[in-house]
């Protein structure tokens, strides 16, 4: 490369957050290249600027054309705004010399950095200088260009890879601890000002989330929910975050003002985080050189329970997931689906049953059938009229609730927590049996020493049997702990059951079935060919435990 009489210099400055050694910042120097409204630059950028400007002042054949600053941008690739602007000026012929503090500030991708320095810049007759590396493309010999420069770029690339790996490992540790590491809290929560890795409930947004779940359980479609929220003037998650002063952006924006959509509603309805479960690590970057991320298999997600206050119960969340798994589209002109959507299944093949309407001479008859026969897969129609189905379901529901309500004194005591936990645990037959088993092992273990003294067993037998009895004692202890945890769960579930039964005290008197009643008590309704109907109740195991405990009161 031949020397020129005069060079228009591009001063390039870069610092990523990973490179920054401290968190202090300084006011910008006031150079005109700093864009209006830019954030305060870091000390390192100021240092790079001063070093390069000092060098240029000592040169008689150089003048600064512009200063290009990428503050907070990774060197893993060259997709940086100021770097791109510099390349545009080079291609336009405005710049014929680029100066950086060192090669690592230019970039840490050794292949792309080598291509730019050895191929692209010479093609545009651009001189490249890296001050701290003592590299000047005008004076560099063959060894510096083909050996030293690639090696230094390779070291910079390896450093970037190492930093990326350390950041990933640190983030994984925080995920496994249950720390929230997202840039923005999910709608319904906010970050704790005193601990940004902890989520606190945002009361207003959480109340909207609760409404969304309640409307879905009541039978509204995702689109109907979105339209209802917009009609009520409730801000979408994106607009709400903006209103709170958060600099939030998303690729889902399609309007000047983002509105609620069926997709946004579904995103809320499928987010397990609302149950108090921290779920993170759903995606990972392909490489430190590539921005694109790929979705990880669900079994590899990091899930930590009880890290924050739940907005919806696990029971309601599970119900909604079941509803989302079936067709809950509303009929034409209606906002919600029919009463049995998500509940009705064929008792033989398990397929969701479909609703059919026969219209004849101005009269309509509604019935449900199994769709499998229409597909030629062998099952029968299992046809049952809607009115007959309602009657059978209501009758079965009344019979079961009559049994539960007869034992409601137990639920009342559990709900008000008037029954001491230790007292309830002592009633459990399994726990009593395990305590008796433990006493037996203690007795056997204590008798070993006497048997050893009398010569009944050898010293080797003494230690062998002692270890056996100790192991069996510990196993019984672990089993007792499991039983006690089950009782604790019963207390927790009892509150929910008591609340549900309180809502349903008038059920025995009602004459018409509603979707709300089904949602509270029924998990699934199975219909068999002979019009037999079987009801699967929600929390049936918990109710069985409640009825068992009723025997002790």
Describe this structure in words.
It is a single chain. The chain has helices spanning 43-57, 81-91, 103-106, 110-123, 142-177, 203-217, 222-231, 237-243, 262-269, 314-324, 386-406, 408-415, 421-427, 429-453, 459-503, 515-521, 540-550; strands at 7-15, 62-71, 97-100, 127-130, 135-136, 189-192, 195-201, 278-280, 283-287, 290-295, 302-304, 344-346, 354-360, 363-369, 384-385, 522-527, 533-537. The chain is α/β, with parallel strands linked by helices. The protein is flat and about 100 Å long. The model is unreliable at 20-40, 251-255, 417-423 and 494-499 (pLDDT under 50).
CA radius of gyration is 35 Å
Strand content: 15-25%
Beta strand count: 17
Query: Strand pairing plus helix content: what structural class?
Result: alpha/beta
Q: Tell the overall outline.
A: flat
Low-confidence stretches: 20-40, 251-255, 417-423, 494-499
Average the pLDDT over all residues and give the rounded result. 76
Q: N-to-C terminal Cα separation, in Å?
A: 98 Å
Proportion of residues in helical segments = 40-55%
The main sheet comes to:
5 strands, mixed
Q: Describe the strand arrangement of the main beta sheet, using strand numbers.
A: 2-1-3-4-5
User: Can you count the helices?
Assistant: 17
